[in-house]
């Protein structure tokens, strides 16, 4: 695969990876067709809601510690910054000094959308430089800016030469991709293009870990292998991003998030990607440790670490397993992260009654089979008959959950956990994905599931006082995918 980081923007996942947002059927059928990139997407005739790739771009770029963000858009596209102030919790947990989000909106109005917005964009760049004294400025291009064709590149070139800092266009216009995760790629492409430097030296003990905001559980674990973690992108500094090319290898908490930047670093700077599923579940963590040790030249540590960690956690896992074996779990999260969660649930002997992912990538950027987490999951837990791809449609999830009646709903997103809670289903929002990683993560998830099940009366009480907004016609429907026209696989 050839990745061209000199292009102004990365190709969308829709075209690059054959990404889809609508499917229902056995996981094995989806996997078999995906292996040949021959899945035809279902047609959804009705959607209750949607989201935007700019939101995914915000998730990463807003929390870069010494950068400023300019959202070149009408004011309505400026996501409420206060929701990102949760970054304070993770900075404190990581022992970092607090910092505030530094964002400016160009507030494009009628004049800008008719006559062009490059003048107000340049004014915003100067204001951000003056107000925040940043080490870099990121510019989010919105639907409005993209539709009118604002020449952001020319503004950036002029401002960079005058201000002397990197100015990074992020082309995350929502209309370009039906897949929100394209916003992650847009940020990483900008970082690769403008921030990552040619390696001055190799840091043989440094590991890039592509992750979201959350506690730093990786540094203590990597110390057992005499390695250091470079946690990127949220809460990272510009210098941490710049030195990604100097790392010994790259790994990530989720293939959906990290394989583009990892593949680019491997191709352009000879930074190998760890070719193993992310460390979620005992068996996948074992494989990850062995592969990580292999690519960093630390194989002598791997088996000792695995043996010690098994001796420490397996007695706890076995005790939890007595309480959880046979319980029915439903999992709903991002593409690869839902596979990660399912692999962890398997360690407790729980029945996976269904999985929904927010999107599905038919291939990864480097097409490595070990990073095909759906295939790895099927090998690990067997086929999942009730497998679907759905971009947060509450009306569909309402029907699925009322029909399958799981004992527990495990998800990463607030909006989805709310549906389960309103139905009286104990629901876990597994938001801090770092806390659930590696061996301690298996124990943490088991403890959270047990706590949620012990709160069953609380969830039932909530359900008694909730009325869903759906008509009696929809409530009486038997097919959750009534509005999805089933595609025929090629």
Describe it.
It is a single chain. Helix content is 44%, strand content 14%. The chain is globular and about 65 Å long. β7, α10 and β8 form a beta-alpha-beta unit. It is an alpha/beta fold and 490 residues long. The strands form four sheets. The protein has a six-stranded mixed sheet with strand order 1-12-11-10-13-14, with helices on both faces. It contains 21 helices and 15 strands.
Which descriptors would you attach to this protein?
single chain, 490 residues, alpha/beta, 6-stranded mixed sheet, 4-stranded parallel sheet, 21 helices
List the helices and strands and how they pair.
Blueprint: H1 13-16, E1 22-25, H2 27-35, E2 43-44, H3 53-61, E3 67-72, H4 87-93, E4 103-105, H5 110-115, H6 118-132, E5 136-141, H7 143-148, H8 152-163, E6 167-171, H9 182-194, E7 203-210, H10 218-223, E8 228-232, H11 238-242, E9 247-252, H12 255-269, H13 282-295, H14 299-324, E10 328-333, H15 335-346, E11 351-357, H16 373-381, E12 387-390, H17 394-404, E13 408-411, H18 414-422, E14 427-429, H19 438-454, H20 456-463, H21 472-476, E15 484-485
Parallel strand pairs: 3-4, 3-5, 5-6, 7-8, 7-9, 10-11, 10-13, 11-12, 13-14
Antiparallel strand pairs: 1-12, 2-15
């Amino acid at each position: 695969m050839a990745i061209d980081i000199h292009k102004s923007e990365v190709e969308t996942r829709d075209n690059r990876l054959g990404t889809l947002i609508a499917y229902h059927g056995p996981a094995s059928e989806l996997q078999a067709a995906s292996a040949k990139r021959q899945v035809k997407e279902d047609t959804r005739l009705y959607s209750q809601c949607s989201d935007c790739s700019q939101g995914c771009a915000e998730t990463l770029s807003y929390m870069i510690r010494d950068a400023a963000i300019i959202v070149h858009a009408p004011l309505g596209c400026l996501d409420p910054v206060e929701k990102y102030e949760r970054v304070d919790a993770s900075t404190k947990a990581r022992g970092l000094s607090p910092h505030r989000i530094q964002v400016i909106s160009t507030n494009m109005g009628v004049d800008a959308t008719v006559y062009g917005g490059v003048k107000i964009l340049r004014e915003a760049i100067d204001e951000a430089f003056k107000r925040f004294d940043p080490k870099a400025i990121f510019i989010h291009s919105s639907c409005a800016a993209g539709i009118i064709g604002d020449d952001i590149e020319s503004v950036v070139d002029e401002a960079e030469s005058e201000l002397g800092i990197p100015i990074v266009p992020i082309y995350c216009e929502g209309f370009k991709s039906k897949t929100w995760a394209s916003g992650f790629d847009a940020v990483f492409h900008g970082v690769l293009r403008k921030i990552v430097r040619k390696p001055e030296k190799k840091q043989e003990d440094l590991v890039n870990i592509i992750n979201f905001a959350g506690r730093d559980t990786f540094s203590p674990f990597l110390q057992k292998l005499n390695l250091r973690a470079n946690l990127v992108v949220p809460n990272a500094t510009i210098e941490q991003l710049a030195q990604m090319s100097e790392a010994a290898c790259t790994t990530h908490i989720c293939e959906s998030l990290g394989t583009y930047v990892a593949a680019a670093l491997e191709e352009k700077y000879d930074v190998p990607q760890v070719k193993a599923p992310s460390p979620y579940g005992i068996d996948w963590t074992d494989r990850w440790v062995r592969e990580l040790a292999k690519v960093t030249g630390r194989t002598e540590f791997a088996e000792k670490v695995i043996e010690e960690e098994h001796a420490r956690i397996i007695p706890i896992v076995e005790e939890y397993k007595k309480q959880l074996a046979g319980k029915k779990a439903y999992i709903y999260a991002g593409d690869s992260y839902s596979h990660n969660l399912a692999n962890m649930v398997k360690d407790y002997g729980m029945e996976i009654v269904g999985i929904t992912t927010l999107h599905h990538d038919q291939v990864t950027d480097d097409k490595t089979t070990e990073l095909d987490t759906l295939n790895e999951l099927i090998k690990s837990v067997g086929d999942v008959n009730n497998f679907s791809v759905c971009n947060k449609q509450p009306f569909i999830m309402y029907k699925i959950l009322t029909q399958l009646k799981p004992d527990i709903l495990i998800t990463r997103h607030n909006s989805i956990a709310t549906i389960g809670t309103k139905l009286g289903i104990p629901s876990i929002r597994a938001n801090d994905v770092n806390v659930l990683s590696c061996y301690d993560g298996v124990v943490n998830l088991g403890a959270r599931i047990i706590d949620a099940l012990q709160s069953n009366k609380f969830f039932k009480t909530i359900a008694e006082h909730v009325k869903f907004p759906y008509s009696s016609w929809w409530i009486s429907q038997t097919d959750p995918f009534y509005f999805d026209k089933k595609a025929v696989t090629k």
